[in-house]
Structure formats: structure tokens, C-alpha cells
Inverse folding.
């Protein structure tokens, strides 16, 4: 009776604040509707031990309950995400926590490799079921807004390589090269000589295979290597969707390493997810906690101001900044749609827990980008103090 009264009090409180198209079904047959309209989402509570997740419905608690099978949810995925955020918003304050600041000593090469392999080494087949054919796992660039995913991903790569003015014969280092799409394009279209590094064994194997199949083994080298171990200098350096794993306190060292790898007149591109909280706090309502626990161990997102500050601390001067937040909302939305369309195949490829994690993660990310909780910024930079008169005087060259 204690839990039932507490639940009824909680339901009344939510109803008083918002009429949600939500139905709650309890293990004993009792049910609650939160609005007068027909429910779009039904949450089934299998036993009393699941109630604490609902009574404190942060995104971390709701996500954990779903992933661990403590709650069952029925409805369209977009509606489920909307309802989860509404429950959290009506039950919690929107204050973000202080920056996570994981112990920088946790970002050892061994621990970083383990974190990367946890996320990326699910299986190549798993990623193929929701990414584009080139398997580009980062924000696409919808130049006109109506491109399909494959076209938008190729445009993103071309946008990056054009921004940093890759020329035939240039040496290019791609930090976190994924399955090799960027270095393949840089070699094939722009004539660059490329090195791609990754900590994912699956990515390394498939990227190497793709380079060989393209007949570009003499022009592209794929390494299973930590970027901190790379030696030499390069005309161009790209880092796409990688610096989120570095750690906030390690950003000056990360950018200093890029500076040391860059030739004096070279250019670099840092393309990565940023927090929209000025203090680089985690996303509201516990979303960041869920991602840290289940998706990206030790991931940390800086505000763009911190990116620019630590970039300068690392000896790099920012030349151009572009916000692609809405592009990532659209990208993640397409990934989530592809995931749903291939749900039966994906269930056969991974266990139920992994399936549930990724199902809510992809759709949740689309929601977070759409609502300005997180963003995506591309920053073109070069060594501080260089002669900048050789740079183009306007951004026109980026759109030729």
C-alpha cells in the first residue's frame, strides 16, 4: 500500500503539470492514463521493485530501467523519447551538473583503448545496419537539406577536406579514422597521402581491407595506434568525432599533440560534439549520466568556448568555426529510423541489452541536438603565430 499511495501521488503531480499521452500499466492490472487523449506510449511495470525508477524519472533512471528490463515500453520511438523527456522535465530541475572531469589519470592509453573498443567493437555488421554504405559514424553535412544520408556524409568529408585546403601530394593524418571513409576520399579525390589511426580492432581490420580493395595501399596506411604515439609531421590533420573521448582536463595536451604533428604552414580540423552548457556540464535531466554508463565510458563534452581556449593553450590558432547542430539532429534521426527499420536483424546480431541501449541512444541524441542540449562544431586551426596572410581572405573557397 505504501508504494501504491506514493505512485498515485506522483501520477497526480505529473497530471497537474502536463497532460501526457501516456498510459502506465501495473503488474496487478491497475492502470493510469496521464491525459485525456489516447495514449501514444504505454509503460508496463512488471513488479513493485521497478517503481523507484519511475518515481525519480531522470533520463538516467528511465534509461537504466528500460535497458535492464525493469520497464517495458510500447509506442513509436519518437513518442517514447518525447514522453521520457517530459517526465524528466516535470519531475526534476533542468540544472546541469558540474563538469564530470573524470580523473585525467583514467585516460591512460590502456583505459582509452578499452573504452573505444567497448563502443566501436560491437561488430562491423551492427554498424552497417544503420550507417550509410561508407560507414561514416559522425555528423553528416546536408548542404541543401534534402540529401540522402550517403550523399550528405560524402559532402561532409568533402566539406572538411576543402576547408583545410588539401592539395595533391599533401600528407594527411586522420585521428580516429573509423572505417576509413575520410582517408579514402582524401586519397582518391584530393590526391593526399594519408595515415589513419584508430584504437578499434574492428575498424582497423575493415579500413585496411577497404584500402587494399581500392588499390590505395601505397597511398594510405591504417594503424591500430593511439594518437599520442604518432610521430612525424603532416601538412593536414583531421580529427572527426574523436575528441569527445579525450577528457576535459586533457584537451590542452590533445591540442598540443596536434600542433606538434602539424607542419608550420599546415592546417587542422577538429570536428566534434560540444556541450551547450557554458560550464561544460553534462546534459540536463541525467542524459549524460546514462551515456557515460552505457554508451561512451569516460566521454566528456566541452563547451565551444573551452574548445577554443584549450586549443590556444595547445599552441593552435582557430581560423574558422561552424556550428552543425541541426545537421547532427538530422543525422541521428536518420540513424534511428534505419535502426528501427532493421530492428529484427539487429536483435539477432546483439543481445537484448545492447539493442535497447542503442535504440534509445540514437533517438535520444537526435532529440538532444534538436533541442540545443548538445551541439557539433567544426574548427579549422593552424599553429599559433604563423603567417596568416597566405590564408584565403574569405570563406568563399569552402563552397566552390
Amino acid at each position: 500500500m505504501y508504494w501504491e499511495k506514493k505512485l498515485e501521488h506522483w501520477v497526480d503531480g505529473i497530471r497537474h503539470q502536463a497532460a501526457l499521452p501516456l498510459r502506465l500499466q501495473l503488474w496487478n492490472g491497475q492502470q493510469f492514463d496521464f491525459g485525456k487523449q489516447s495514449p501514444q506510449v504505454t509503460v508496463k511495470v512488471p513488479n513493485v521493485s521497478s517503481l523507484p525508477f519511475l518515481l525519480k524519472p531522470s533520463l538516467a533512471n528511465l534509461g537504466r530501467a528500460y535497458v535492464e528490463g525493469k520497464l517495458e515500453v510500447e509506442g513509436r520511438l519518437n513518442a517514447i523519447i518525447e514522453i521520457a523527456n517530459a517526465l524528466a522535465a516535470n519531475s526534476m530541475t533542468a540544472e546541469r551538473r558540474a563538469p564530470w572531469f573524470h580523473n585525467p589519470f583514467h585516460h591512460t592509453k590502456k583505459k582509452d583503448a578499452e573504452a573505444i573498443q567497448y563502443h566501436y567493437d560491437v561488430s562491423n555488421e551492427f554498424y552497417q545496419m544503420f550507417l550509410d554504405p561508407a560507414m561514416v559514424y559522425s555528423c553528416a553535412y546536408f548542404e541543401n537539406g534534402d540529401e540522402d544520408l550517403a550523399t550528405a556524409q560524402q559532402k561532409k568529408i568533402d566539406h572538411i577536406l576543402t576547408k583545410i585546403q588539401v592539395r595533391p601530394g599533401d600528407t594527411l593524418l586522420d585521428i580516429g579514422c573509423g572505417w576509413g571513409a575520410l582517408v579514402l576520399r582524401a586519397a582518391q579525390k584530393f590526391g593526399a597521402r594519408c595515415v589513419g589511426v584508430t584504437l578499434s580492432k574492428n575498424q582497423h581490420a575493415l579500413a585496411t581491407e577497404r584500402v587494399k580493395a581500392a588499390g590505395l595501399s601505397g597511398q594510405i596506411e591504417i594503424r591500430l595506434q593511439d594518437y599520442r604515439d604518432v610521430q612525424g609531421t603532416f601538412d593536414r590533420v583531421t580529427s572527426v568525432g574523436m575528441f569527445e573521448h579525450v577528457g576535459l582536463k586533457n584537451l590542452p595536451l590533445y591540442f598540443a599533440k596536434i600542433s606538434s604533428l602539424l607542419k608550420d604552414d599546415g592546417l587542422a580540423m577538429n570536428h566534434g560534439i560540444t556541450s551547450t552548457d557554458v560550464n561544460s556540464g553534462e546534459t540536463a535531466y541525467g542524459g549524460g549520466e546514462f551515456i557515460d554508463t552505457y554508451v561512451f565510458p569516460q566521454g566528456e563534452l566541452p563547451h565551444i568556448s573551452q574548445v577554443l581556449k584549450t586549443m590556444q593553450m595547445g599552441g593552435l590558432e582557430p581560423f574558422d568555426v561552424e556550428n552543425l547542430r541541426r545537421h547532427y539532429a538530422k543525422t541521428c534521426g536518420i540513424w534511428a529510423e534505419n535502426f528501427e527499420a532493421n530492428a529484427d536483424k539487429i536483435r539477432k546480431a546483439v543481445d537484448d541489452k545492447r539493442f535497447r541501449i542503442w535504440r534509445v541512444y540514437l533517438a535520444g541524441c537526435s532529440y538532444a541536438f534538436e533541442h540545443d542540449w548538445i551541439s557539433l562544431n567544426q574548427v579549422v586551426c593552424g599553429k599559433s603565430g604563423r603567417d596568416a596572410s597566405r590564408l584565403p581572405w574569405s570563406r568563399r573557397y569552402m563552397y566552390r
The two ends are 69 Å apart (CA to CA).
